[in-house]
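Appendix C. Worked example: MerR family transcriptional regulator
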Amino acid sequence: MANGVTVGEAADMVGLSVHTLRWYEQEGLVEPIDRDSAGRRRYCDDDIGWLRLLIRLRSTGMPVREMRRYAEMVRAGDETLTDRLQLFVEHRERVLARIDELQQDLAMLDIKISLYGEMARAHQESLPVS
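Step 2, the predicted output written as structure tokens:
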């Protein structure tokens, strides 16, 4: 990406809409994106990497307010490293708890699949042969 990519290309690369990318910038999740001589946004590799991180944080359930807080801490510099670490440790604990919940949900689904599979086989076997 020698001169960066357009907002549309960046949106395609990270799987978000153009509207969402602009909203991320408006909300302070992304620093203002550099613009070309015509005033169009040009996303560089670092911008794309940052967006991918934000997408992961969001997909793991981090609230936007915490994502914004994280972005602010990064911009504030190294004096926020301990706070950033704490933010990620706490978020990791929430992710692990959600994984545990999902594993319990999956176990219930497996029980139902097994039960209905057995019932369907028994039903098929009880049908008269034609």
